[in-house]
Design brief:
The structure holds two protein chains of two kinds. By secondary structure, chain A is mostly helical. Chain A is about 75% helix and about 0% strand. Chain A has helices at about 5-10, 15-35, 40-55, 65-85, 95-105, 120-130, 135-145, 150-155, 160-180. Mean pLDDT of chain A is about 85; it is low at about 110-115. Classes of the chains: A mainly alpha, B alpha+beta. At the A-B interface, helix 4, helix 5, helix 6, helix 7 and helix 9 of A face helix 1, helix 2, strand 1, helix 6 and strand 6 of B.
């Protein structure tokens, strides 16, 4: 079923919308949740919450790309679930590794008096990603949005793991410089 | 700022880039494309069996569907035509390509001594003799329900390097394309 038809089902408040979403994008959302949450049961709950989130969002939302619309819901839900499960302690796995890598972008550069507004930071990161070269952008997003392991990224792009790590290191340095220029650090 | 804030704020990234990073069918693309790729490969294998030559098949190299070659223009042609392997590409036809000497010289100077070159272990001498910029014109059509990348008749600069072991040229990066009349 085409995305437009599935969205129309949501708007018509037909429960078939959820079945069609699960059929078409269940594996995609499951992969995102599994990268974030260590336990399969938690990931499955996050995916179930995704369908509820989609049901509540449409209408009025009418996403142009349903796949990434659902993926974003899954990612937000999964990250929130991770925070709720582990509170101050980081949950381990790919999220912890990704956070440790990104720490280098923020360590030592912040000024105490500056306060980051979450929405403005999101827009700044959006512009940063827009400006990345194509391959570098793909690798960056696979790592820090999809939270894929380095091995999976290296296999997907045909790169060595050391090359993936080098690319990500360069991207993080660019990000640090960009955030500093935009006065977020 | 905490790194968690960056991780969460990345939620604002444009959907087209998320689609581009992981098209709906990754690796070989759709079943149709996989069957076509295998059919082409099988036909090529039969021809090669009788001709006695060996050739690189189109494959994923440096994040690009391409066929490394001794001919840099042929590599770029394969990268253009390799676009068809992405799920969101409906058609891709190559028109022409040429080495851009001015851009090549400019790119080499930018690369020499750069952090990028250091991270890859590229010496100035290697850069001087094993890098090229190729300007290509091609026409591509995308499914805009799956990507927001611009399509039509486009001109694009491709950045190539020559592998030190095989001496084959391969695309390793490209600028965003521009529409051309």
């Amino acid at each position: 079923m085409e995305d437009e038809q599935i969205v129309a089902l949501y708007w018509a408040r037909s429960e078939r919308a959820i079945r069609e979403s699960m059929s078409k994008y269940g594996a995609y959302c499951q992969a995102i949740a599994c990268n974030i949450l260590s336990f399969r049961s938690d990931a499955e709950e996050a995916v179930n919450d995704t369908w509820l989130g989609a049901w509540n969002a449409m209408p009025p939302a009418q996403p142009a790309i349903l796949r990434t619309f659902l993926g974003k819901i899954t990612r937000r839900v999964s990250l929130k679930r991770l925070r709720d499960l582990y509170r101050e302690k980081r949950g381990g796995g790919q999220v912890e590794l990704a956070l440790e890598e990104l720490d280098a972008c923020v360590r030592g550069g912040s000024t105490p008096e500056q306060e980051v507004i979450e929405k403005e930071l999101g827009e700044a990161l959006r512009r940063f990603v827009d400006g990345l070269p194509q391959t570098e952008r793909r690798v960056f997003l696979c790592r820090y949005w999809y939270l894929d392991p380095i091995t999976a990224i290296s296999q997907r792009f045909g790169f060595s793991e050391s090359k993936v790590k080098s690319m990500l290191s360069r991207s993080r340095k660019k990000l640090q410089a960009y955030l500093r220029k935009e006065n977020y650090l | 700022m905490k790194s968690e804030q960056i991780l969460e704020a990345l939620d604002a990234v444009d959907d087209r880039w998320l689609q581009d990073a992981k098209p709906e069918s990754t690796g070989f693309g759709s079943k149709r494309n996989r069957l076509r790729t295998f059919a082409i490969a099988a036909a090529a294998a039969v021809i090669l069996l009788f001709s006695g030559f060996t050739v690189y098949r189109v494959g994923m190299v440096n994040g690009w569907w391409q066929r490394p070659s001794n001919d840099p223009l042929a590599v770029v042609q394969s990268a253009v035509e390799g676009e068809i392997n992405w799920e969101y590409t409906q058609s891709a036809s190559f028109e022409r390509a040429e080495i851009d000497e001015a851009e090549t010289a400019r790119w080499k100077e930018n690369l020499k001594g750069s952090e990028l070159a250091r991270s890859y272990g590229w010496s100035d001498d290697y850069i001087e003799h094993h890098f090229l910029v190729v300007r290509a014109v091609y026409t591509v059509q995308y499914d805009h329900t799956k990507t927001w990348e611009k399509d039509g008749r486009l001109e694009r600069l491709y950045f190539l390097r020559q592998d030190q072991e095989t001496n084959l040229w391969e695309v390793y990066e490209a600028q965003s394309p521009n529409e051309t009349p």
